[in-house]
Amino acid sequence: MTMPPIRRRHGAAERSLSRGAGPVAPAKHALTRRSFGALVAATAGAATLSACSPGPRTADPNAPLRIMAINHVWSQAIAEHLPEFEDLVGRRVSMRLLTADQLSNSYNVKLNASATDIDVMMVRALQEQILFTRNGWLADLTDRVEGDAAYDWTDFQEAPRERSVTADKVVSVPIVTERPALYYRKDLLEDFGGAPATLEEMLEISLELADRNNGFFGYVGRGQRSGAVTQWSSFLYSFGGDFTVDGASGIGTPEAIAAYEFYGRLLAETGPPGVTNMSLEQAMPIFAQGKAAFYIDADAIYSNFLDPGISTVIEEVGFAPFPAGPAGSVPHNIPSWSLGINRFSLLQDDAWEFIRWISGPEMVARLQAAGIPGARQSAWDDSATLASFPNDLAESMRINAENGKGTDRPDVIQVGRARDIVGRPLVAGITGAAVPPVAADADAEFADFLIRDNRQREF
Prior knowledge:
This protein is α/β, with parallel strands linked by helices. Helix content is 37%, strand content 14%. It has helices spanning 73-79, 82-89, 100-112, 129-134, 142-146, 158-162, 186-189, 199-209, 229-238, 254-270, 280-288, 348-358, 361-369, 377-380, 391-403, 415-422, 424-431, 435-455; strands at residues 16-19, 65-70, 93-98, 120-123, 165-166, 169-170, 173-178, 180-185, 217-220, 244-245, 248-249, 292-298, 317-320, 334-341.
């Protein structure tokens, strides 16, 4: 699908980009790094205003469009395309790359002060979007996305598209998506007929293959109280549960307790010691070094297992869809990062033109073909966009995207606190404690938390 050309507003443009102090790419998105070429450092000052004129503030015609983003493979990939947009719109683009902590701190400081020196914002729809919307920091994009037939908002997959809505308004556009992948040892699964289709089969094979006394584990995964919640969410959904039911806590339901107990047993009986202290950074290397038969984590980290500097299982690793539980296979399919517009921006029209361009059908297909999974169904339906992924991974990603649910954590303002509460029965299951009483206590705590959290939603 070809969108109408972007209106050129100004003269020749110059790209600029500044980088934060963080690493070039987070480990969880370890894809091919790209050279930025000769980029001019961005200034940190605000857009020049026509301050001497009475009436509403307007941006100087020569002010750059300012993008604030995390230092991520998506940001690195689009850097080389920015001159294309500058030529189209006739405005210089300045993109500043920061670590996740730096990005959050910058938003808190600048947007609390109604700063105009951010136009396009890279945000996490599942982590901070509700808070930012409540604070009035994100512009309403509803009319822009729904009123543009060529943009085709319905082409975005349903799960990530739904996560773009808060308080009945579209406030972000998904740009990078993520699902869980089942990573497994093909050489060890030959006698079992390949990858397991169900969670129960995976548990049985894990129990049979585990040789924990000799340092080999059936399954490795996140076990840290808060950090494990995102990956456990797919187990919860596949057991028929959810974080909330009719607005109330759902973590004390029979389905949730069964998911807690299953996940706890899987790690307690077939996993490595010290797993309750393991997040992505500790669990992933165990599988990469050939010390586990199964591992479930984000599909975005797949290249770690194909990197000879990290992995010893390059030839043995296989990729499969999330196994089915009692309620089927219901993995998460989330927008890990989205784009929004600063409500205080003086360049909202140009900011929208940028989002419209970078998240349009053609650009999403180009980025996905380069190994960055997007949110448009048209891209997923085009086999050429999946050619950079291993064939079995591409197929598992496609299946998980079709079956996926658009969240991997409670849909609340205080996400960190919610994950800490929800993760408590997880730890109980892994350490061998009785799950039902711990889940009942956590359920009561989460119910009280939801009441307080909902009171804070004053949009």
